[in-house]
Write a structure and sequence with these properties.
Strand order of the largest sheet: 9-5-4-13-16-15
Largest sheet: 6 strands, mixed
Strand content: 15-25%
Number of strands: 17
Order of helices and strands: EEEHHEHEEHEEHEEEHEEHEHEEHEH
Radius of gyration: 23 Å
Helix content: 25-40%
Subunit structure: Homooctamer.
Number of helices: 10
GO biological process, one term: thiamine biosynthetic process
Subcellular location: Cytoplasm; Nucleus
Bound molecules: ligand 48N
Distance between the termini: 63 Å
GO molecular function, one term: cysteine-dependent adenosine diphosphate thiazole synthase activity
Pfam family, one: Thi4
Length: about 300
């Protein structure tokens, strides 16, 4: 096969690529166009290589994470902030995020009523500085130009952490609940299935789930969406919570401190954060301001460490 030019002028011979040292500068589109000889090509590949590259990695990870140190249910602003703080604080922990949507991020892609700017009340702006999200300072609050700038930056930081695995398009459809010798029930992991399966159980005969066991589950499944407040509702049906508190009317000044200060272990082995906690406790909602999610996520990380170390 004739050698072809690649991005940084290196030659590929017989389909085997010479070990390429990283280019002095990142290839830019103009480099590609300048090198373009009218026949821009890629190094050759076999379809099976692509499939095996995905299958090997995904199922090795899945096999490894059936026993995790912490499972975080829900990759919204609270769950992702918890994952970031936990992974940063304890790089030794195997942290597994289970997110039902194909696209993680929950409700934090937009600021409110489909508008894009995101409001975060001080002092939660310190977290923006920590992860590198620019904002406009408006005195008692800050405004991020687009909510997706916050969420995509946080997601990239979390997914770059070597001890974090995220399984999106995967739903938690039950909790693993063990009973100790004293008869106390304790959450000991999650029951999972592909989300498309979880949403279609009534179309087929039983499509059994999978399990992930862990000593601590952080549930941050939000207050709306196809599976909102999942664990809070499951605690009621499992007899571990008498009744759902149900989220109350909007009050920014009451809701945000309440959600941060009440983030806690709501049942042995289960920590609840974010708007799911509003549903569990019957606390107010805050509407389009996200500092409480950040604070709750960080508090949930501290709670998870407390439970792990107890
Ligand atoms: O963004 P959410 O919904 O939840 P939080 O608590 O991280 O953030 C809430 C926040 O976006 C607000 O609602 C704002 C502050 N508004 C407040 C108000 O007053 O209206 O993320 C939850 C994530 C979503 O991505 C869901 O897909 C996911 O959890 N999820 C699940 N993932 C796996 N298994 C499940 N059973 C499940 N249920 C929900």
């Amino acid at each position: 096969m004739a050698p072809v030019q690649t991005l940084d002028n290196k030659f590929v011979e017989n389909g085997f690529q010479k070990q390429m040292k990283s280019p002095a500068k990142p290839a830019t589109y103009s480099d590609v166009v300048e090198n373009y000889d009218g026949q821009y090509r890629f190094a050759p590949i076999q379809e099976a290589q692509v499939s095996r590259a995905m299958i090997k990695r995904y199922f090795e990870t899945m096999y490894d994470r059936v026993i995790s140190d912490v499972v975080i249910v829900g990759a919204g602003s609270a769950g992702l902030t918890c994952a970031y703080h936990l992974a940063f604080t304890r790089p030794d922990l195997k942290i597994t995020i289970i997110e039902a949507n194909v696209a993680p991020g929950g409700g934090a892609w937009l600021g409110g009523q489909l508008m894009t700017p995101m409001v975060i009340r001080k002092p939660a702006n310190r977290f923006l500085e920590e992860i590198g999200v620019p904002y406009e300072d408006e005195g008692s609050y800050v405004v991020v130009k687009h909510a997706a700038l916050f969420t995509s930056t946080l997601l990239s930081r979390v997914l770059a952490m070597p001890n974090v695995v995220m399984m999106n398009a995967t739903a938690v459809e039950d909790l693993i609940i063990h009973e100790d010798n004293a008869g106390q029930q304790r959450v000991a992991g999650v029951v999972t299935n592909w989300t498309l399966v979880a949403l279609n159980h009534d179309t087929q005969s039983c499509m059994d789930p999978n399990t992930i066991t862990c000593p601590v589950v952080v549930s941050a499944t939000g207050h709306d969406g196809p599976m909102g407040a999942f664990s809070a509702k499951r605690l009621v049906s499992a007899g571990l919570l008498k009744e759902l508190g149900n989220m109350r009317g909007l009050d920014m000044n009451r809701s945000e401190p309440a959600i941060v200060n009440n983030t806690r272990e709501v049942a042995p082995g289960l920590i609840m954060a974010g708007m799911e906690l509003s549903e569990h406790d019957g606390k107010n909602r805050m509407g389009p301001t996200f500092g409480g999610m950040i604070g709750s996520g960080i508090k949930a990380a501290h709670e998870a460490l407390r439970v792990l170390d107890s």
